[in-house]
Structure to design on (458 residues):
């Protein structure tokens, strides 16, 4: 269906925010995602300014036989596919954050970024379980799971969600928690954005203390030696240490700090909630390998968001990830055969995150995805400004998944899946239950998540 069938005057009259249509002067800005490789062509874009705007968008889209897709930043816009017949609801204008320092909770509007929460919580010594990049959206990240720098000691961010304000496909605004709508509350915690449009999220914060965090750098030529040492080292760590082994090929771009611009490294990034002495003792075997740079220092919440050196703004990138059951030496050799210094796939970043600890699934208290039955997570990404680079990166990613197949977990991680058609993000029983929740709340499939869940009739 086309936007001709959307009742444009009626929708416009109800919106506190804006409605942008194809051909409008701001159309290209309105339809743009953070992920610049994605060329989104929805039927209309609603720039939501309030929960009432979301209600109006869902009601009028559904009335016109259209679907809706919610987007905070567009960090994970790649798997959405064609938006024909869809009204894109952008929540980036809804960035309110209220901290309750007594209850240790945050109540955030749908478009809040992690930077917003980190800044608002810091004066109270509190922090959310933010991911590595400050400009990722709290809602998309938390609905998908949420793997933070404190993941091994605190678990997934989705497990900290205590309530959500959502608009369901029938256009009803509801406050959803474990008592009011237990099935929907279960589904949105780890099951993604297929079930309702979230207008606000309430979640627990943690006392941050002064964790030590930073990066040890070596020349990329030492990748095998350093990553094998890191792999063995992870087996010795307490849950207070979360770390990443990574290959990084910094581009020759002005945005990249001069000391690393155009250079390539193997790095170990880490955050430790141990005290200084215990962290130094834990780090001794890696420091004995003589890193050329060592930036480990006590971090604020904002500094934690600098460790991973994520791009400061929208990027044309192509990436994908998967989970590993284990990382024996042969698996690491296979990884290096595709992305290592001698390989002909010059991926910008190839990382392996150490899981375990508090990331073990918590079926009793958690939602659809409450943790990972996996030992490591892999994510690779390249900058791909032109189609040929996108295709080359896809070929490299395919080659990597193929060589890693013997150690790959049967399920993937929704937030790290940037292509449709990868491993399912949950086991068959969980997917079946999610399908039944979808059928109960959205039988016509009005609400589109980037990782869709098909309705399963009762
Ligand atoms: C640079 C970078 C760093 C990252 N670091 C981490 C990390 O450390 N840990 C980690 O776990 N992940 C990380 N990610 C992945 C990130 O968590 C996912 O891309 C996530 O989906 C982003 O959420 P978003 O809201 O910003 O993106 P969007 O693309 O806006 O949203 C993604 C999906 O979430 C759903 N959604 C968003 N808003 C709503 C809403 N209001 N209501 C209903 N559904 C909604 C929709 O299905 C939407 O398609 C990173 C990604 C990038 C690009």
């Amino acid at each position: 269906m086309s936007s001709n069938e959307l009742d444009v005057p009626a929708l416009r009259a109800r919106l506190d925010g804006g409605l942008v249509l194809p051909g409008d002067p701001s159309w290209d800005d309105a339809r743009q995602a953070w992920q610049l490789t994605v060329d989104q062509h929805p039927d209309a874009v609603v720039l939501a300014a309030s929960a009432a705007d979301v209600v109006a968008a869902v009601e009028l889209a559904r009335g016109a036989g259209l679907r809706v897709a919610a987007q905070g930043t567009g960090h994970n816009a790649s798997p959405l596919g064609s938006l024909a017949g869809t009204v894109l609801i952008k929540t980036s204008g809804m960035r309110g954050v209220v901290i309750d320092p007594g209850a240790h909770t945050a109540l955030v509007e749908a478009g809040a970024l992690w930077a917003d929460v980190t800044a608002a919580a810091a004066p109270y010594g509190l922090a959310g379980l933010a991911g590595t990049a400050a400009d990722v959206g709290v809602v998309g990240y938390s609905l998908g799971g949420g793997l933070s720098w404190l993941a091994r000691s605190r678990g997934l961010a989705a497990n900290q969600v205590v309530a959500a304000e959502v608009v369901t496909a029938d256009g009803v605004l509801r406050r959803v928690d474990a008592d009011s709508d237990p099935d929907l509350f279960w589904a949105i915690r780890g099951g993604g954005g297929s079930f309702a449009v979230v207008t606000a999220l309430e979640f627990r914060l943690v006392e941050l203390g002064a964790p030590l965090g930073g990066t040890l750098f070596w020349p990329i030529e030492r990748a095998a030696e350093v990553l094998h040492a890191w792999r063995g080292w992870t087996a010795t760590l307490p849950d207070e240490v979360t770390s990443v082994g990574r290959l990084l090929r910094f581009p020759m771009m002005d945005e990249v700090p001069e000391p690393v611009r155009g250079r390539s490294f193997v790095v170990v990034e880490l955050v430790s909630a141990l005290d200084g002495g215990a962290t130094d003792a834990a780090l001794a075997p890696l420091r004995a390998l003589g890193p050329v740079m060592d930036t480990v220092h006590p971090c604020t919440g904002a500094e934690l968001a600098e460790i991973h050196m994520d791009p400061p703004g929208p990027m044309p990138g192509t990436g994908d990830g998967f989970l590993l059951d284990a990382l024996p030496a042969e698996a690491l050799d296979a990884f290096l055969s595709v992305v290592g210094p001698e390989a002909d796939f010059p991926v910008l970043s190839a990382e392996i995150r150490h899981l375990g600890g508090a990331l073990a699934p918590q079926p009793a208290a958690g939602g659809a995805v409450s943790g990972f039955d996996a030992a490591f997570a892999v994510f690779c990404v390249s900058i791909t400004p032109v189609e040929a680079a996108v295709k080359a990166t896809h070929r490299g990613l395919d080659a990597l998944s193929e060589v890693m197949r013997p150690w790959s977990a049967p399920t993937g991680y929704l937030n790290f899946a940037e292509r449709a058609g990868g491993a399912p993000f949950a086991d068959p029983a969980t997917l079946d239950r999610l399908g039944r929740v979808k059928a109960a709340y959205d039988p016509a499939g009005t609400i589109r998540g980037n990782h869709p869940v098909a309705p399963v009739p009762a």
User: Anything to note?
Assistant: The radius of gyration is 22 Å. The mean pLDDT is 96. Residues 70-77, 80, 91, 110, 131-133, 136-137, 139-141, 143-147, 192-193, 197-198, 310, 415, 449-450 surround flavin-adenine dinucleotide (CB under 6 Å). The chain has three domains: 3-90, 97-207, 212-416.
